[in-house]
Amino acid sequence: MRKLIMLLIAALTVTLAVAQTQTQPAPATPAPTTRAAAQPAVAPDPDPVIVSAGAVTIHKSDFEAAVKTLPAEYQTFAMGPGKKQFAEDYLRMKLLAAKGLGEGLDKTPEVTKQLELMRENLVATEELKKLENSITVSDEELKKAYDDNKKEYEQVKARHILIAFKGSPAAQKSKKSLTDAEAKAKAEELRKKLVAGASFAELAKKESDDIESGKNGGDLGAFGRGQMVPEFEQAVFNAKAGEITPVVKTQFGYHVVQVQERTTTPFDSVKATLDKTVRQKKLRDQLDAMKAAAKPTFNEAYFTPPAAPAAAVEKKQ
User: Fold this and answer.
1) Which tens digits make up the pLDDT trace of 69-85?
2) pLDDT of residue 202
3) Domains: count for the chain
4) In CATH, what number is assigned to the domain containing residue 184?
5) Do 157 and 255 fall within a single domain?
6) How far is residue 160's CA from residue 6's CA, in Å, rounded to a whole number?
7) Does position 313 have pLDDT exceeding 60, yes or no?
8) Lowest mean pLDDT among 25-29, 227-231, 243-247, 307-311
């Protein structure tokens, strides 16, 4: 409850007041006639009062503006199943704010500082939006970003046979433990058989200590950079399609790997993501330039980290 009220207090400080709709005077009652006079249609109020409590009134626009200041995960709830609950919380906040304003709490130094901070934060957010909207990205820039980072869009489809050594996370309890040298020798022997034409799928099912991929003939599916351990990744991305790599050692054991296919995600498929990335970089560059132009200085004495406690220093020694 306290957290929501604090969110609502923040909303109150950044929501502009909406002018109340002026009530039109009722038309004079016409003199009785033998035929009923037609009454003009009254347009519905576009911004009705939806909650009132004493001197506090909440218009529809006030309520919806407050909802929009909440984090996204709260907004759906506040405009859906929790609308009445949110209105009650919002009313509590408004009543508290009205009481505090009546007591002059908005003039206290602590509240004044907080209000100014909220005001600056709101203005800064709007300025950031303005900068974001001013950024343009051409197709040429996107194509260059794609070409400069083309490796990031490469994918390979591969299969492997893993021979685990003693202590490996993949070592099977049902199998005899192999020393590092024994595991390497076995992997080298399997590679020779594969190069000579043996069935990769059959050997993987029979020999691989990677049980899950072994069931599927060693198939690892397609993957990109950053998804495998570095030694394995380097071997597969340096190999050609159809090639069986030299035996690769990782913390899991020794791998015999065959690269089945190499592909590159086309430019059009990543264009939208690239656009977002390039825009973010341009925005960061603008912010960095703004800071550099201001030539900031910091009080190093204030920002110097405190010395480690003596007890901790002695313990390390």
Assistant:
1) 899 889 999 999 999 99
2) 97
3) 2
4) 3.10.50.40
5) yes
6) 56
7) no
8) 25-29
Judge contact between 75 and 66, C-beta under 8 A.
Answer: no
Q: Which two tokens stand for residue 30?
A: 């016409």
Per the domain annotation, does 62 fall within a domain?
Answer: yes
Expressed as residue numbers, the domain containing 243 is 152-264
What's the rounded mean pLDDT across residues 50-59? 94
Tokens of 294: 């201001």
Q: What is the model's pTM?
A: 0.63
Domain co-membership, 68 together with 163: no
